Amino acid sequence: MRTREHSGWNAQLLRQAFVASRPVSWINTAYPFAAAMLLTTREVDWLLIVGALYYLIPYNLAMYGINDVFDYASDINNPRKGGIEGALLAPKYHRPMLWLAVLTNVPFLAVLAIAGGPGSWLALAVSTFAVVAYSAPVLRFKERPFLDSATSSTHFVSPAIVGLTAAGAQFTPELWLILLAFFCWGMAAHAFGAVQDVVPDREARIGSIATVLGAAPTVRLALALWALAGALMLFTPFPGSLAAVVAIPYLVNCAPYARVADDDSGRTNRAWRRFIWLNYASGALVTMILIAWWLRTS
């Protein structure tokens, strides 16, 4: 009987871990790594597969699992928790979730560090530090306005940089421009996502870019950052410049909330849910552009 209860508890922990890892967003971190490596090496090798698998699941488990553990105080008052936007982790799962994150991440990080060589160590260190520092006590970068958005963007840009460094890519001005545009996109995404949590975050005394600036100014900042990301892509070599149009759907989705009141900020969740699925459409368009670049440069 005790063994059966233990198995049931483990199964429940894994179900909680699955929800906490935000499976709908797994591709957002695995894709940048895989695309960066593939376009540099032009081959699918074991390192690309291992790295893509790491950034698909364990990385997201650490990033979002740590967040759900230490954000429990605000999450219990947040109606959007408990579904595709994150788990509402009961306290009994907090310590096991942290251990699960460690045990699933460390082996992959060791392999990536050894296989990628010294050139990838700094990128790996920054990527891992950003994941921990965003939510962990004392550091809590997510409660430091502007640094919260920058750290969140690092979560998505750093896998691409890890892939590039592991593949021995040459960092040209054009490549840095693309990475900067991606970074602006990431900051915009975080800032806009923070708007919907203004009320529960303030009730839990959690600071963020949105609680400090207010809902409407944060929305307008997100719009500016998405527009800047699109503008930067215009200066990249063709067909990369075509990716500038990717910013347009995000601007259209976000613009209606440019004057949203703080007390009414929760209604931006509708646009946030659309944002989640917009990423898939944008990813499809970016993939076609990358294929065109591949053919053009082969």
Describe this structure in words.
With 298 residues, this protein is mainly α. Helix content is 71%, strand content 0%. It contains 14 helices and no strands. The model has no long low-confidence stretch (mean pLDDT 92).
List keywords for this structure.
mainly alpha; 14 helices; about 300 residues
Topology:
Elements: H1 2-20, H2 27-41, H3 46-56, H4 58-70, H5 72-75, H6 94-116, H7 118-135, H8 147-166, H9 173-195, H10 198-203, H11 209-213, H12 215-233, H13 247-254, H14 269-297
Percentage of residues in DSSP E strands: under 5%
Largest sheet: none
The unreliable regions are none
Order of helices and strands: HHHHHHHHHHHHHH
Look at the structure and give the mean pLDDT: 92
Instruction: Tell me the Rg in angstroms.
Output: 19 Å
- Shape, principal axes of CA atoms: globular
Structural class: mainly alpha
Q: List how many beta strands DSSP finds.
A: 0
The share of residues in helices is over 70%
Count the DSSP helices: 14
The first-to-last residue Cα distance is: 62 Å
In brief:
This protein has 298 residues and is an all-alpha fold. Helix content is 71%, strand content 0%. The chain is globular.
